[in-house]
């Protein structure tokens, strides 16, 4: 098989040393293993600039959506009401989660190119005192927009509500001072900016609010409070944990630290993004988002005017030459996406641009 690097926003390209950790079948009830889990939980709190006892970290089996579903269905109780601010598919997925579990919610939907407006959220909270929780996505991977969770967090805190943030594709790639920004529950996963492999999500939770959620969960396996209670004893997971993924993740955390932590990783992703935009614009591509709202994680491009090729053809050509792109997800325009995260460096972006230039010469003449 022809190997390639992923220019997709998770799963993403990981290092060989992270992958190598998975060659050992670790015992789950052994003390060494439980200590790895505890070290991971402590490291995650540190990355979020929070600490025990105000905050705690919980790991949850499954992909990122399992983590979001765990929080929404565990902490929004039957008498509560959730305001979901959405400007893309991942925000809207929260409404699906709420519908399936019978969680009472209202939707504030914004266009894919615009950030949810904190003033508007403030007015909605004022108009409907029944709203108890607010949730939104930080880096909306649908478009690559970076939402202003700091401003919304301030509004939510002033109104005395609970703030839930899906920071799946941004946590550890973009610095998030969790407590300072008024975040009560933050969700991310193993296979995004920490550069581990897929298999679990994690939640940074304000401990007091997590304790208040006891008995509210609608699901057995996704019960966040119950998961925390078990894990907090000594690091044992409630049900079988993805041991290989956990070992790989512990290594990925070490490598993040060795790179220089979040500031260094953010800088690398930002350089990847800027270089990508420069090179692609030189080839005639235009970005979907305005630069002011664009995040460093993933970049959406329009197809060039009058393009004589399909995404499939472009994808195939580039894949055969070592890189995999991502199709577009925004509804109203013909686009495709390029992820800037993972074990990707400026030389990869230069190579991609050269392959893209060859492709355009071949198809457009
Ligand atoms: C990746 C991602 C998720 C989770 O998706 P899974 O496929 O369940 O891992 C959720 N929200 C955002 C913004 C994401 O980028």
From TrEMBL:
GO terms for molecular function: 2-aminoethylphosphonate-pyruvate transaminase activity. It catalyses: (2-aminoethyl)phosphonate + pyruvate = phosphonoacetaldehyde + L-alanine. Its cofactor is pyridoxal 5'-phosphate. The keyword Coiled coil does not apply. The modification N6-(pyridoxal phosphate)lysine is found at residue 192. Pfam families: Aminotran_5 (PF00266). Residues 35-302 form the Aminotransferase class V domain. InterPro entries: Aminotrans_V_dom (IPR000192), NH2EtPonate_pyrv_transaminase (IPR012703), PyrdxlP-dep_Trfase (IPR015424), PyrdxlP-dep_Trfase_major (IPR015421), PyrdxlP-dep_Trfase_small (IPR015422), SP_NH2Trfase/AEP_transaminase (IPR024169). Coiled coil: none annotated. It comes from the Bacteria. Its EC number is 2.6.1.37. The keyword Transferase applies. Keywords: Aminotransferase, Pyridoxal phosphate, Pyruvate, Transferase. Involved in phosphonate degradation. Belongs to the class-V pyridoxal-phosphate-dependent aminotransferase family. PhnW subfamily. Homodimer. PANTHER family: 2-AMINOETHYLPHOSPHONATE--PYRUVATE TRANSAMINASE. This is 2-aminoethylphosphonate--pyruvate transaminase. The gene is phnW.
């Amino acid at each position: 098989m022809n190997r390639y690097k992923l220019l997709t926003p998770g799963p993403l390209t990981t290092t060989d040393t992270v992958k190598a950790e998975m060659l050992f079948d670790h015992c789950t009830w052994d003390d060494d293993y439980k200590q790895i889990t505890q070290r991971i939980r402590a490291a995650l709190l540190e990355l979020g600039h929070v600490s025990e006892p105000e905050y705690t970290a919980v790991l949850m089996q499954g992909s990122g959506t399992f983590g979001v579903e765990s929080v929404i269905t565990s902490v929004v109780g039957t008498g509560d009401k959730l305001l979901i601010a959405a400007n893309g598919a991942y925000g809207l997925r929260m409404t699906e989660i709420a519908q399936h579990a019978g969680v009472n919610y209202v939707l504030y939907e914004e266009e894919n190119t615009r950030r949810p407006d904190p003033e508007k959220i403030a007015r909605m909270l004022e108009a409907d005192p029944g709203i108890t929780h607010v949730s939104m996505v930080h880096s909306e991977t649908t478009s690559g927009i970076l939402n202003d969770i700091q401003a919304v967090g301030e509004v939510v805190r002033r109104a005395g509500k609970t703030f839930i943030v899906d920071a799946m594709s941004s946590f550890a790639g973009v610095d998030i001072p969790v407590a300072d920004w008024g975040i009560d529950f933050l969700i991310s996963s193993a296979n995004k900016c920490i550069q581990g492999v897929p298999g679990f999500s994690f939640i940074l939770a304000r401990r007091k609010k997590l304790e208040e959620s006891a008995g509210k969960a609608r699901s057995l396996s996704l019960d966040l409070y119950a998961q925390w209670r078990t894990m907090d004893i000594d690091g044992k997971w409630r049900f079988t944990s993805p041991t290989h993924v956990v070992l790989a993740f512990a290594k990925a955390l070490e490598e993040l630290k060795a790179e220089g932590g979040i500031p260094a990783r953010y800088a690398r992703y930002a350089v990847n993004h800027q270089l990508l935009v420069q090179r692609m614009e030189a080839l005639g591509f235009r970005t979907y988002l305005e630069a002011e709202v664009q995040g460093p994680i993933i970049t959406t491009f329009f197809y060039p005017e009058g393009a004589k090729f399909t995404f499939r053809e472009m994808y195939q050509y580039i894949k055969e030459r070592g890189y995999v792109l991502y199709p577009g997800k925004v509804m109203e325009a013909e686009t495709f996406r390029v992820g800037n995260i993972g074990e990707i460096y400026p030389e990869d972006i230069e190579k991609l641009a050269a392959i893209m230039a060859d492709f355009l010469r071949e198809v457009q003449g």
